[in-house]
Write a structure and sequence with these properties.
It is built from four helices and eleven strands, in the order ββαββααβββββββα. It has about 200 residues and is α+β, with helices and mostly antiparallel strands.
Protein backbone atom coordinates (compact mmCIF):
# COMPACT_ATOMS: atom_id res chain seq x y z
CA UNK A 1 0.00 0.00 0.00
CA UNK A 2 1.56 3.31 -1.05
CA UNK A 3 -0.19 5.24 1.72
CA UNK A 4 2.18 3.76 4.32
CA UNK A 5 -0.80 2.86 6.49
CA UNK A 6 -0.44 -0.86 5.94
CA UNK A 7 2.57 -3.15 6.12
CA UNK A 8 2.73 -6.41 4.18
CA UNK A 9 4.66 -9.00 6.18
CA UNK A 10 7.37 -10.55 3.97
CA UNK A 11 10.60 -12.38 4.61
CA UNK A 12 14.12 -11.35 3.51
CA UNK A 13 13.60 -12.75 0.00
CA UNK A 14 10.38 -10.77 -0.39
CA UNK A 15 8.09 -13.79 -0.27
CA UNK A 16 5.11 -13.54 2.08
CA UNK A 17 5.42 -15.37 5.38
CA UNK A 18 3.05 -18.28 5.91
CA UNK A 19 0.86 -16.16 8.19
CA UNK A 20 1.22 -13.03 6.06
CA UNK A 21 -1.37 -10.36 6.69
CA UNK A 22 -1.60 -6.65 6.10
CA UNK A 23 -0.96 -4.78 9.33
CA UNK A 24 -2.61 -1.37 9.86
CA UNK A 25 -0.20 1.21 11.28
CA UNK A 26 -0.96 4.85 12.09
CA UNK A 27 2.44 6.36 11.37
CA UNK A 28 4.43 6.02 8.13
CA UNK A 29 7.82 5.90 9.87
CA UNK A 30 6.62 3.16 12.20
CA UNK A 31 5.12 1.28 9.25
CA UNK A 32 8.38 1.56 7.32
CA UNK A 33 10.49 0.52 10.36
CA UNK A 34 8.34 -2.59 10.75
CA UNK A 35 8.57 -3.38 7.05
CA UNK A 36 12.37 -2.98 7.15
CA UNK A 37 12.77 -5.14 10.29
CA UNK A 38 10.49 -7.87 8.95
CA UNK A 39 12.31 -7.73 5.64
CA UNK A 40 15.37 -9.10 7.43
CA UNK A 41 13.65 -12.34 8.51
CA UNK A 42 16.22 -15.06 7.92
CA UNK A 43 19.28 -12.84 8.45
CA UNK A 44 21.63 -14.39 11.03
CA UNK A 45 21.98 -13.15 14.58
CA UNK A 46 25.43 -11.60 15.09
CA UNK A 47 26.30 -10.25 18.52
CA UNK A 48 26.86 -6.48 18.13
CA UNK A 49 25.58 -6.65 14.51
CA UNK A 50 24.02 -3.59 12.90
CA UNK A 51 23.87 -4.46 9.20
CA UNK A 52 22.02 -6.75 6.79
CA UNK A 53 24.90 -9.22 7.09
CA UNK A 54 23.89 -9.83 10.72
CA UNK A 55 21.98 -8.18 13.58
CA UNK A 56 21.75 -8.46 17.30
CA UNK A 57 18.44 -7.53 18.92
CA UNK A 58 19.11 -3.82 19.44
CA UNK A 59 20.98 -3.53 16.14
CA UNK A 60 17.91 -4.75 14.25
CA UNK A 61 15.63 -2.21 15.95
CA UNK A 62 18.09 0.70 15.65
CA UNK A 63 18.78 -0.10 11.99
CA UNK A 64 15.09 -0.42 11.10
CA UNK A 65 14.06 2.87 12.71
CA UNK A 66 17.06 4.74 11.29
CA UNK A 67 16.50 3.40 7.75
CA UNK A 68 12.81 4.31 8.08
CA UNK A 69 13.72 7.96 8.61
CA UNK A 70 13.85 8.23 12.40
CA UNK A 71 17.53 8.78 13.15
CA UNK A 72 17.78 6.61 16.23
CA UNK A 73 21.47 5.89 15.61
CA UNK A 74 23.05 2.71 16.99
CA UNK A 75 21.40 2.04 20.31
CA UNK A 76 21.88 -0.73 22.84
CA UNK A 77 19.01 -2.14 24.85
CA UNK A 78 20.32 -0.11 27.79
CA UNK A 79 20.33 3.18 25.90
CA UNK A 80 16.85 2.43 24.53
CA UNK A 81 15.57 1.96 28.07
CA UNK A 82 17.45 5.07 29.22
CA UNK A 83 16.30 7.34 26.37
CA UNK A 84 12.78 6.21 25.47
CA UNK A 85 10.94 6.60 28.73
CA UNK A 86 7.30 6.42 27.64
CA UNK A 87 6.13 3.24 29.35
CA UNK A 88 3.22 1.51 27.64
CA UNK A 89 0.61 -0.74 29.22
CA UNK A 90 0.13 -4.12 27.50
CA UNK A 91 -3.48 -3.01 26.95
CA UNK A 92 -2.20 -0.10 24.82
CA UNK A 93 0.45 -1.99 22.84
CA UNK A 94 0.83 -0.49 19.35
CA UNK A 95 2.91 -1.41 16.30
CA UNK A 96 6.48 -0.17 16.69
CA UNK A 97 6.52 -0.51 20.48
CA UNK A 98 9.58 -2.17 22.01
CA UNK A 99 9.28 -5.07 24.45
CA UNK A 100 12.12 -5.85 26.87
CA UNK A 101 12.09 -9.26 28.60
CA UNK A 102 15.06 -7.89 30.59
CA UNK A 103 17.50 -5.05 30.05
CA UNK A 104 19.63 -7.12 27.65
CA UNK A 105 17.06 -8.05 24.98
CA UNK A 106 14.47 -6.21 22.87
CA UNK A 107 11.68 -7.20 20.46
CA UNK A 108 9.49 -4.97 18.28
CA UNK A 109 5.73 -5.37 18.23
CA UNK A 110 4.60 -5.36 14.59
CA UNK A 111 0.84 -5.63 15.07
CA UNK A 112 -1.51 -8.51 14.39
CA UNK A 113 -0.33 -10.23 17.58
CA UNK A 114 3.28 -10.63 16.36
CA UNK A 115 6.79 -9.46 17.26
CA UNK A 116 10.02 -9.37 15.25
CA UNK A 117 13.34 -10.11 16.92
CA UNK A 118 16.95 -11.11 16.42
CA UNK A 119 16.93 -13.71 19.21
CA UNK A 120 20.34 -15.29 19.90
CA UNK A 121 23.50 -16.77 18.40
CA UNK A 122 22.72 -19.60 16.00
CA UNK A 123 19.26 -18.24 15.18
CA UNK A 124 18.01 -15.79 12.57
CA UNK A 125 15.76 -12.75 12.61
CA UNK A 126 12.23 -14.05 13.00
CA UNK A 127 8.60 -13.09 13.42
CA UNK A 128 6.88 -14.92 16.26
CA UNK A 129 3.44 -14.69 17.87
CA UNK A 130 3.02 -12.43 20.85
CA UNK A 131 2.64 -14.77 23.81
CA UNK A 132 1.20 -14.36 27.28
CA UNK A 133 4.76 -14.20 28.68
CA UNK A 134 5.39 -11.03 26.64
CA UNK A 135 2.69 -9.14 28.52
CA UNK A 136 4.77 -9.00 31.69
CA UNK A 137 7.60 -7.24 29.90
CA UNK A 138 8.73 -3.64 30.04
CA UNK A 139 7.21 -1.92 27.00
CA UNK A 140 8.48 1.39 25.61
CA UNK A 141 7.18 3.57 22.79
CA UNK A 142 9.72 5.20 20.44
CA UNK A 143 7.29 7.24 18.33
CA UNK A 144 3.71 8.26 18.91
CA UNK A 145 1.22 7.71 16.08
CA UNK A 146 1.41 11.44 15.26
CA UNK A 147 5.16 11.09 14.67
CA UNK A 148 6.37 12.79 17.84
CA UNK A 149 9.40 11.23 19.48
CA UNK A 150 9.39 9.96 23.05
CA UNK A 151 13.16 10.51 23.26
CA UNK A 152 14.24 11.97 26.61
CA UNK A 153 18.02 11.98 27.07
CA UNK A 154 19.11 10.43 30.32
CA UNK A 155 21.75 12.17 32.47
CA UNK A 156 24.26 9.55 31.26
CA UNK A 157 23.53 10.41 27.61
CA UNK A 158 25.54 13.04 25.85
CA UNK A 159 24.97 14.62 22.48
CA UNK A 160 21.48 13.23 21.87
CA UNK A 161 18.97 15.03 19.70
CA UNK A 162 15.38 14.75 20.88
CA UNK A 163 13.95 15.86 17.56
CA UNK A 164 15.51 13.13 15.50
CA UNK A 165 15.94 10.51 18.18
CA UNK A 166 19.64 10.30 17.45
CA UNK A 167 21.64 9.54 20.52
CA UNK A 168 25.27 9.17 21.36
CA UNK A 169 25.19 7.41 24.67
CA UNK A 170 27.65 6.81 27.42
CA UNK A 171 26.26 3.29 27.78
CA UNK A 172 28.63 0.67 26.48
CA UNK A 173 28.72 -3.07 26.82
CA UNK A 174 30.96 -5.93 25.88
CA UNK A 175 30.50 -9.65 25.81
CA UNK A 176 31.90 -11.23 28.96
CA UNK A 177 34.39 -13.98 28.18
CA UNK A 178 32.92 -16.38 30.70
CA UNK A 179 29.29 -16.19 29.50
CA UNK A 180 28.47 -17.77 26.15
CA UNK A 181 26.43 -15.63 23.76
CA UNK A 182 23.48 -18.01 23.91
CA UNK A 183 23.36 -17.47 27.66
CA UNK A 184 23.09 -13.69 27.26
CA UNK A 185 19.32 -13.95 27.04
CA UNK A 186 19.12 -15.41 30.52
CA UNK A 187 18.27 -12.50 32.79
CA UNK A 188 20.34 -13.91 35.65
CA UNK A 189 23.46 -13.49 33.48
CA UNK A 190 22.45 -10.12 32.10
CA UNK A 191 21.93 -8.61 35.54
CA UNK A 192 25.09 -10.20 36.88
CA UNK A 193 27.34 -9.27 33.96
CA UNK A 194 25.83 -5.98 32.81
CA UNK A 195 25.21 -4.18 36.06
CA UNK A 196 25.34 -0.40 35.55
Amino acid sequence: DSSGKYVPVNNASGAPLASSQVIPVGNQIIAKAIQIAVGYVGVPYVWGGYSPSGFDCSGLISHAYTKAGFNMGRQTTYSMLDNYKQVVSPNNLAPGDLLFPHDGHVLMYIGDGKVVEAPYTGATVRVVPLEARHYGLTIRRVLNSDGTSTYVPSPATSGGSGGSGSASTGTTYSMPSDVGSDELLESKNIKKKYKK
